Amino acid sequence: MPKIKDEKKYVDIQMGKFQLFFNKKYRFISLANDLSLGLWFLIGSILFLFKHTQTIGTIFFILGSAQLLGRPVLKIIHAFYLKKGSS
After folding, report:
1. Neighbouring-strand partners of residue 1
2. C-alpha to C-alpha distance for 13 and 43, rounded to whole angstroms
3. Is residue 17 part of a domain?
4. CA 41 to chain centre
5. Which of 1-5, 33-37, 73-77 is predicted least confidently?
6. Model confidence over 33-65: pLDDT tens digits?
């Protein structure tokens, strides 16, 4: 079972003799988003090759296209944050 250590600026996941470091949750979410986005389009492309699965392939393309909107939203959330001002 992987050990997850959540530090202030990064997440450390230890799996046996290997360790994965992610710069907090937005970086990991962004990578997971990109990976699943690629899978939607790859699966959609394969399904689109055959006449009887073209509709399902089109649905995968639509899911991937909708998920493309998540990339800039994640970057905006990661880049900006609200902080209470001292007045």
Report:
1. none
2. 29
3. no
4. 14
5. 1-5
6. 889 999 999 999 999 999 999 999 999 999 999
Taking the CA atoms of residue 11, residue 12, residue 15 and residue 17 in that order, the dihedral angle to the nearest 10 degrees is 160
Query: Domain containing 53: what range?
Result: 40-86
Any domain includes 4: no
d(CA 46, CA 87): 58
Task: Return all residues near 28 (Cβ < 8 A) that are at least 6 apart.
Answer: 11, 22
Does residue 61 sit within a domain?
yes
- 55-84 in b/e burial notation, b at 16+ Cβ within 10 A? eebeebbebbeeeeeeeeebeeeeeeeeee
Q: Model-level pTM? A: 0.60
